[in-house]
Amino acid sequence: MPAEETAPPVTAFMLIKTTPEWLAMTPQERVNAFATQVVPAIRARTNGVRSRFYDTEFYSTRVTDVWVWEADHHAAYHLLVDALRETPFWDRYFEIVDLLVGTENGYARTYGLDPVATITT
């Protein structure tokens, strides 16, 4: 019996920019706001999501941070966005500049090819 194919995880690159309200807080106030207002909403509403957070303000004025999310499936990603939109993170502490959502090596999966664009040296 052939192995059942599973849908690839969804990866989302949230390109965000800090707002004056966020920057007016002390670093400790930012940590507290994130820990008490954003993280609980994510944990309560989602399952099967993981994230990494990158500071980019040293190199870009348009985007100050990139929050990379991986979700087990599209429904998990939708729940994540819904959860974030109900917190001050969305358009109060951060401006959402762009959302880039895709699946890793989708072209290779579509055409049954090896993922030649994924390189490790």
Question: What secondary-structure arrangement, pairings included, does this model have?
Answer:
Elements: E1 10-18, H1 20-24, H2 27-45, E2 49-55, E3 65-71, H3 74-85, E4 94-102, H4 106-111
Antiparallel strand pairs: 1-3, 1-4, 2-3
Would you mind describing this structure in some detail?
Helices cover 35% and strands 26% of the residues. With 121 residues, the protein is α+β, with helices and mostly antiparallel strands. It has a four-stranded antiparallel β-sheet with strand order 2-3-1-4.
Helical content (DSSP H or I, runs of 4+): 25-40%
How would you state the average pLDDT, rounded?
93
Ends distance: 36 Å
Structural class: alpha+beta
State the order of secondary-structure elements, H for helix, E for strand.
EHHEEHEH
Q: What is the beta-strand fraction? A: 25-35%
In spatial order, strands of the major sheet run 2-3-1-4
Q: What integer value in Å does the Rg equal?
A: 17 Å
Characterize the biggest β-sheet: 4 strands, antiparallel
Question: Total strand count, please?
Answer: 4
* Unreliable runs: none
> Tally the helices: what do you get?
4
- Overall shape: it is globular
